[in-house]
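User: I'm writing a tutorial on reading structure tokens. Could you give me a worked example: one chain, its sequence, then its tokens, then a sentence or two explaining what the tokens reveal?
Assistant: Sure. Here is the example chain.
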Amino acid sequence: MMSWIYAGVASSLVIVSGLLHGMWTDRWARSDETVNAKEALANIPMMVGDWVGQEVEKPSPAAPGVTGSLQRTYTNKRTNVSVSIAIVNGRPGPVGTHTPEVCYDSSGYMVGQKEAVAIDAGETPVQFWTSEAVREKVTEKTKLRLYWSWSVGTGWVASADARHEFPRYRHPILHKLYVVRDLNAQTVGSDKEEPCEAFLKQFVPALQASLFAG
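And here are its predicted structure tokens:
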């Protein structure tokens, strides 16, 4: 009797192990989900309102589990202020894990206290985290303004824990958007509004239409 129980337990462990490995390696994932998410990035327009985009060469391959990525700078043709964007999409685990506290800290930046801000981008609910990141060297000091958020298609969320808020069994694809401005290189001019927020007001509606149309 006990031998049958042990055999059943061993068999169950093998099955569970196989299921976990299959989920981790995407063995049973719908390939069209990841392909469509990656291809949708090409639909994001280069011109959005007053902003004109320019592609940025990706410095390194995407991390495992990240399906697609896009990097650009957008320059306001009226004020000449530029912002940099990075968009990645893929499985919620990898996309939800890395935040500026991790990524920028590993590059020598001190990331300040973050706060959530709401962006008026039309009908889409939009909330971003924002913070400053500072890196000091002997001969220079770099200061950045950061904005970041996640989306599964129903809006952009300043999540405290994106990996767990958007579990893979409910959301097979997660999108993350960074917007960054170099505070050393540019002056805002007469505009009182933070340029990153002004950009997001025009960019998010175009982004929604590109990523989630249909």
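What the tokens reveal: The radius of gyration is 21 Å. DSSP finds six helices and nine strands in the chain.
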